[in-house]
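Note to self: the last two entries modelled the partners one at a time, which told us nothing about the interface. This time every component goes in together.
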Amino acid sequence: MKYFLLLFLLVGRMALGQTPDSAQVTAIPPVPTFKYSYITELGTMLAFTRTPHMQDFFRQNQIKRAFPLDPFVYFTTGVRYQRVKAILESGYATNSWSYWEQEENAARRTYGAYSGILLGYDVLNGRNSRLYLNVGIGGVFYEYSVYGRSSQPVAFSNILQYNQPGTISSLKLSNTYWDINVEFAQREKRRISPSFIVRVGYRQGWQAEAWESGAFPLTGAPLDRIGQFYVTTGYSLAKNYAKAAKR
Amino acid sequence: MKACLLVLAWLLLSSWPAAAQSVPGSQARLVVYRQREFGGNPYTLKLNEKVWAELPTNRYLQVDLPPGRVKIETATDYFSESQTLWLTLRAGRTYYVKAVEDVDFMTRTLLLALLSDEQGQRETQGLKPAPLQLPK
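The predicted structure of the combined assembly is written out below.
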């Protein structure tokens, strides 16, 4: 009897104190408000690149131009403080598609890279996502080779002396640029929080720069100001802090 | 004059809170609503294990039910998790359930919470009724 009474006292309060709506939730959990985050991000970018004067040169000389849609892989690292974000970014162009062109002369992109800094503010700040408006500056670098095809056999022992007409071993362009993009990012929910990020933006060279060659000093080359419309998709990992770190 | 009256009537009716009409005496009224959300997905709701309707953002669902236990549940797909809310309905009362989407990396869920009549009435003002037909 004593044990029964003890058991009743132990569980009675819980059992009798339960509300009829036992599964009732009386409030929606609040939105996590981490004050600042360290963010790293890895992703891919597709960039539609315009270099109008060099493209004109290729067209006038029946050189098949390189495909203007450039795939990149990129990496960023940065910090977010409340609604402001600053990131350093760097990307490297990959040649993800094979070259199937059969034209006598064809231009191929042999190198493409960019690096810059972005500063953003989340103009829309929701429970699940943030929409940043980012602006930034940076540098972009491109190099092309022009291949002149021939059916004439060349002995390997003579390859250094052989000079194929219509071949340009190196055409390089570097531009400093301004950049503006809109970024959709999933909101951080936990102390260490992965998220999905998409950016759509445009970058353009500050001023037209002359094309150069890595093989020899080039004079009288056309000037180009790169224009690049791009879309990036990536995954980020953020370490989030509610308060300022103690020293 | 007629136009003014029509505009006035439309303004009054459009801001009329959900469930402002009186509840039939032997019934209880359930209102499930979602406010405007940035990029919110629609969710299919189940009522006592039966598919009820799809609830998008900025909409409410309303139904009169006999008193007793009722189970509100969100249907799931590959990326969403189910949430369940049990309520014990009493005749003549209106129950306001707020639904908010919560998205985490690769998963999402529709949180459900029973709120006070005051808050429910205030937050359902201006919301439109959700279509009861599920999209095919």
